[in-house]
Fold this sequence. Notes:
Chain A: It comes from Methylobacterium oxalidis. Chain A: It holds the Pfam family AAA_lid_2. The complex is a heterodimer of chains A (344) and B (301). With 344 residues, chain A is α/β, with parallel strands linked by helices. Chain A is 48% helix and 17% strand. Chain A has helices at residues 9-28, 33-44, 59-70, 85-89, 106-109, 127-139, 173-178, 191-199, 206-212, 220-233, 238-252, 277-293, 301-312, 320-323, 326-340, and strands at residues 48-53, 73-78, 90-94, 100-104, 114-120, 141-144, 147-150, 155-161, 179-185, 271-274, 316-318. Chain A has 2 domains: 10-219, 3-Layer(aba) Sandwich (Rossmann fold), CATH 3.40.50; 234-340, Helicase, Ruva Protein, domain 3 (Orthogonal Bundle), CATH 1.10.8. In chain A, the strands form 4 sheets. In chain A, strands 2-5-8-1-9 form a 5-stranded parallel β-sheet. Chain A has a two-stranded antiparallel ribbon with strand order 3-4. In chain A, strands 6-7 form a two-stranded antiparallel ribbon. The two termini of chain A are 21 Å apart. By secondary structure, chain B is of the alpha+beta class. Chain B has helices spanning 14-19, 161-184, 199-210, 215-233, 242-248, 256-270, 275-281, 284-300, and strands at residues 4-7, 20-26, 38-47, 52-53, 62-65, 68-78, 81-90, 98-102, 105-113, 116-124, 127-131. The longest helix of chain B is centred in the middle third of the chain and has 24 residues, at 161-184. The radius of gyration of chain B is 55 Å and the shape is rod-shaped. In chain B, 22% of the residues are buried. The interface between A and B is medium-sized, with 18 and 20 residues.
Amino acid sequence: MNDIRSGDAILTDWRAAAARFERAVAGAVLGQDRAIRLVTIAIFARGHVLLEGDVGVGKTTLLRAVARAMGGAYERIEGTVDLMPTDLVYHTYLAEDGRPRVEPGPVLRASEDLAIFFFNEINRARPQVHALLLRLMAERSLAAFNREYRFPHLQVFADRNRVEREETFELPAAARDRFLMEIPIEAPRDAEARRALVFDPRFHDTDALIAEVEPNLLDPSALAGIASAIQHGVRASAAIETYVVALWEALLRPHAAGIRLPGIDDLAGLVQGGASPRGVAALVRAARVRAWLEGRDWLVPEDVRAVFPEVMAHRVFLEPVHELRRSEIVPALCRAVFETVPAP
Amino acid sequence: MRRTLCLIACLIAAPAAAQVRAVEVRTPRPFGYFLGDLVQATVEIDVDPGFVLQAASLPSPGPVAYWLDLRAVERETAGTRQRLRLTYQTFYAAIDARSLEVPGFPLVLASDDRHGSTTATVQVPAWSLGLSPLREVQPPRRADPADYLRPDGSGPRLRSEPMRTVSLALAALALAALGLLARDRAWWPFRARPSRAFAGPARRLAVLARGPQTDETYRAGLTALHRGLDAAAGQRLLADDLAAFLARHTAYRGQQDGLDSFFAASRLAFFGGATGDARAQLPLAEVAATARRLAAAERAA
């Protein structure tokens, strides 16, 4: 079903590029089709992505593969307890001639062409670093060396280890809200994919595996334009607008929407806040990209549903008493919202 | 009719004679007693002041003769007059009217003064009792010995109306309680029928398909079938969920083509902004037919 008009041939071409990109990443990362699709959506929605998952499920591999397939300037940094904001901006050393030197750090090294900034283990970094990152993500700019640097093509990918809690710093709500998506990564369930991952030596050497990925499939400098074209090209009918607003309302006030969750008595006091207008706008942005990837130039409820948990779940803040069971409650709440709100 | 039987006691001893002035036994009548009758006899003794009957000398209730029992003895004092009320019962089965003698008995009177105790004995005289038979000695012959027996007395008539009323009221109460219990436990008449998800939408669509066709009615018709599908699925059913829905509800599998085109038309009408195209693709009459077939499949399932 190709409803896009011939005048939008450029969008069609880009859709083919996106498909090639997905195939290239899927060649290196097995059994993560949904995560790859979501990352693709995030790229075309110009949103930052946080991957969350257990140790060794392929978060870093996925992001490295994405970075290589996408192309453009790429920097990465590892989050540690002693990492300071300045470490991102510059580093100082004594040169061979004995004179002190100041060189640009990872963020500034590629100058304003930086397309992908990959923050590994983001929750190991201190809140000061989160604060710097907040500005980098929100405004795509940074003040250093008496001037302001702008990064129009920048996209931040971060990953976070869900298991460890020692020596980590929880991301502030504002920083989490800046991420378009929080994508949970789990080891593939499919038995064949698991066998291949364990026994195929191809998956044991990550560097070689990443080197196989076809590089530079998407031009980062053109992405902003195409993202804007997608947002303008995909129509949202009055019905879908009503639907999204009803979803939003049901998510914030589940008791009023008639939602019942097992094991929670005071549903009225469950959701403390969150689900900001920025979050819902991000939801629609991601849903539009999904509609475009599916070959439509209009939104359907399935588009919203496909991206809803990853875009909205981390923006919902529960009452502290329920926060510990967040990983059960929020997915159940998202499911219940879609089971309750009528689509057309 | 009270006849007094008066006997003045003979003076046996001078002191006693001086102390007891008169002894008198009275009965209501001297004759006309039958087997089992109670006989009231009153003994009145006029004594000198200070003398009272000694309790130990009173006759004790019990058999007096083989045909006579003393049932009760009561004593009272009125001034110098000592009175005994005796209740006898006769067991004499007389075959003709005859007079029997009730034996007398002695009584002791005592007076306590500061010089010591003075006692006097007084003999209550025997008196006679006229007893009569209950029936003739030889009753007339009867052919059937059972005729000698009197017929049984008829028992009191029991009224059945109040009991019937009470039992009917209790039955009604029990029925009401059963109704409440059935409602509480969701037993038969209260057991919610498996709701017919498609019956209502099919009716509504039939009405809409007959009426004038506008975009509004078309969308209303689609919404009606959407609500039916939501109810059947137990959640909101989107187009992408159709395969899973049909896998779960095998009864509707035969309607897959109809449902596919319905969802395609619904998408176009609601989200594609092309209700006209959708109407051309799938007229409301066909949607109504799909709903009718779904309702039929639902009843058959």
